[in-house]
Amino acid sequence: MSNIIKGPSTRELMEQMARESEHLSINDRRDFLRKGVAAAAGMAATTIAGNSVASEINKANLPPNEPAWGKQLGHGVVEHPYGSPSQYEKHVVRRTVPWLTADSIASISMTPLQDMQGIITPNGLVFERYHGGVPQIKPDEHRLIIHGLVERPIIFTMEDLMRFPSVSQIKFIECPANGGMEWKGAQMEALQFTHGMLSCCEWTGVPLKVLLDEVGVKPEGKWILAEGADGSHMSRSIPIEKALDDALVVYAQNGEMLRPEQGYPVRLLNPGWEGNTSVKWLRRLEIGDKPWYHREETSKYTDLMPDGRARKFTFVQETNSVITSPCPEKPLVQKGFLEIEGLAWSGRGKIKQVDVSFDGGVNWVSAKLKGLVLDKALTRFSLVTKWDGQPWLLQSRAIDETGYVQPTLSQLREVRGGNSIYHKNSIHTWKVASTGEVTNVQIT
Amino acid sequence: MFRSLDSKLLKKSLLALGLGAALTLTGTAQAGQYGIGAKATPEEIAGWDIDIRPDGKGLPAGEGTVEAGEALYEQFCATCHGLFGEGEGRWPVLAGGQDTLTEERPTKTVGSYWPYASTLYDYIRRAMPFTAPRSLSDQQVYDITAYVLYLNEIIEEDFVLTKDNLASIKMPNEENFFVDPRPDVKNKRCMKNCADPKKLQIAGTLRGITPVGHFVEGADAPAASHDAQMEQEQHKEKVRKATLKGETLAAHGGSAKAALSEMATAGKSTYDGACKVCHGSGLTGSPKFGDADVWAPRIQKGMPTLVQNAIKGFTGDTGVMPPKGGRVDLSDKQVEEAVAYMVESSQ
Lengths: 444, 347
Description:
By secondary structure, chain A is of the alpha+beta class. Chain A is built from eight helices and 23 strands.
């Protein structure tokens, strides 16, 4: 650290650069200066490899000194026509667990929940799940066909879909395998991997009901096959009741067109249901009288029970919650005042209450819900307390508006065993050591 | 007031007023409320309507044999799924696994788990082979479906699978699926003395299997992406080999990579979409991307030979390269570019 303090002052560096750049053109000089300054500022930047790896502090930028950025000009408008996060936030990215899947094309990555604020997931951080990679679809060559047991089969262009009166709704999407690695025992040493197959956006599009009214579903139409345009041609059977209730055909998220990773130019959204049913790159909806029993609703996304039988059409993502601060990635570093925060969500409606336990579920206190509390959306909870270096077994327990109480791991395992992969929504435990280190443990 | 008006007249008057959205008031049963979108023609629907149902609805005309399926399976499927459906690497196991569903580690295969044979036809038709979806003919799908059913001892070797008999094939596990009964677990909201602290069992995680390098300094953990994990493994391998030779290696990431040629750069997207599945991990003996040692003897043969082998297919000592890796839709030029990309990145 001391060598940085002894380094040349910003003014000296600037003067040196100005001398060396005298022979350059105005544009070259601007580039040179920018690179030069970045290199100088890099003293602090290069050490930020991870979020908890301490960065070197250049005291020259601290009071009473005027910091470097106060003594020079920054870049102008449209330097970055589409902006990106600060260079100091490079650790806030999606990550995967490579051994989970055979390759990266049919795979999953997780949202860095440990770095999220509020309830909205930025578009670039929404978890990814592909079965055949991300297609690069040209929107004016994309079509959505609705056919089958309908009065009028219709083919829509994107322009057509965007002509319908639109709605915008904040809803979570969660992969039903979220937490699936933890059925048999604690495995993942990080929040991003225990709970990160979860994101929440404001989605904009047309209620599926509006489109179904447009084609006129025949009375015998009871199921809808949704199919994607990607190489996997992902397909799922959706009951007509869901379609008529709250399913949406969406083309935008968080104020901009869908990201390719999230189904650009259009996807289905089944609020509160397993993410896989919200078919991305949606190209076809067929109305039928029976389900199709395709691969992703038989071989996959069915829940194997201890007796060897399996549950099918396990659509709802049941009430769940997790403490996001502290967590393994965000250990406790200071004693004293502490705000414990976390996220709760339910596929059946609104979150009504979240409780927090410090002793592994023996005693509980009520947390406060903060910000928006919305139907089938992430809900942030908070509990203000003090930490004096005592070890904790931290848990959260959510209750939704139907009265459903998030179960314990023992309760889930008793009914479902350890091989059902999907829908593990049990109370999660973080062990907080007296050092402040946070680890993933299971209490039974 | 509006309701008493003739609906046609109302439409006209509203349109004249520019109140198109108000047309919802008329509620006509004949056309859609909004009249947006075009009629989908039978031809348009037929091209995309690829789904098959357990009752056979959607099956195209045709039939398939186990014998024809065997050859196709070896060409298009065995690389990932194994010669006998046993699965390579982490790719899905297709056969076997009977009576394992109640075991500690169940093997869910077509024969042990899948409830309907129609699902097999549907899935192969919509998504397989993995690197070239929708490239098989309906006939080929029948043949491969027959062969996979045969591998699972569901049909006999001489069985001819047809549009008319596929739905009648009974899968062994069909009866064992039932509709979601949740909520199945009832917890109560208890606030005080909810458990006996002495009886709590606390179990931690296995160390070293989670990618934690981004927040734990010096962790010897997997990387948090497939590409980074591959690089990490390759680097470890290089270090191991260098150590054997008594050399020391530059720090990970320290060596500057040579710039790629224009042709190699152009080949990256083809590589990502068509070649990476096998060459990224060295699946079934394919030369692994970035592994200079396994590429060296191949590169010695010269680019023209390598490119020809990639285009026409090649059987080597370590494995089989199908023509264009199974992606016959690729142009020769695209294959050549992808080969250049792999070669230049593996020296």
